[in-house]
């Protein structure tokens, strides 16, 4: 398979490096200077697998397109509209903020367009998000997802909006509010680095909720909702349904996930290993 990557900046060159471990890549940019800068960053063993070019015409020989140009709606649409006339390959945009619907509705072939949001640096970070628009064809999604998994990536499929961005927005919004209330920046980061970040790294926010206990989380949320009247604390319906079924987490053997009899002990051992690895024990 041959992949056409548009844009030789930080993300584009990283995407090219990530893909070149398994496939041939054509890395395109209108700037010779950007291509030369990219060449200097590409590992020597991968140089033979990455062709550098300033023309879009070479997309005709490629099986998939990865666009990583400047994060501007008009710029992305202009490039993608030109490319879609040259190939029938899936059109993937690395946009992280711009709505995929806003891009898709401006294309002639919106069914083969989707967002493919690589994390930075792309050749190091394991997660890639597929963000589908209301026009995206399911066969296109399956093809791109299979391609990414073959690269060894962890893939999540999102509808219309990046999950990473939603998490980021929520966390950074609350962290900013804390700063405005007088909390020290060091303390905000310390809570994440020495507690929440560790738990979420190993178990994820929902997996960690199972260890806390869904019933405990429900009553805590209910108290906070009644005390402060903030909608963000209101217990969700799915949580109440879980409790009614007795699926309250690790202590019940089932919550959001299912657990064996030694789940808690295994959790402790995983935390100890992570702390030792990070030098925080």
How does this structure look, described?
With 281 residues, this protein is of the alpha/beta class. It folds into 2 domains: 2-163, NAD(P)-binding Rossmann-like Domain (Rossmann fold, 3-Layer(aba) Sandwich); 184-278, N-(1-d-carboxylethyl)-l-norvaline Dehydrogenase, domain 2. It has helices at 10-20, 32-41, 73-84, 100-104, 138-150, 163-180, 185-212, 214-228, 237-244, 263-278; strands at 2-6, 24-28, 50-53, 64-67, 91-93, 113-118, 127-132, 154-159. The protein has an 8-stranded mixed β-sheet, with helices on both faces. α1 (10-20) links the parallel β1 (2-6) and β2. α7 (185-212) runs antiparallel to α10. The protein is elongated. It starts with a strand and ends with a helix.
Briefly note the CATH topology name of the largest domain.
Rossmann fold
Order of helices and strands: EHEHEEHEHEEHEHHHHH
- Could you name the CATH homologous superfamily of the largest domain? NAD(P)-binding Rossmann-like Domain
Low-confidence stretches: none
Looking at how many chains there are and whether they match, the oligomeric state comes to single chain
Family: Belongs to the 3-hydroxyacyl-CoA dehydrogenase family.
Keywords: Cytoplasm, NAD, Oxidoreductase, Phosphoprotein
Protein name: L-gulonate 3-dehydrogenase
Domain 3-hydroxyacyl-CoA dehydrogenase C-terminal: 164-259
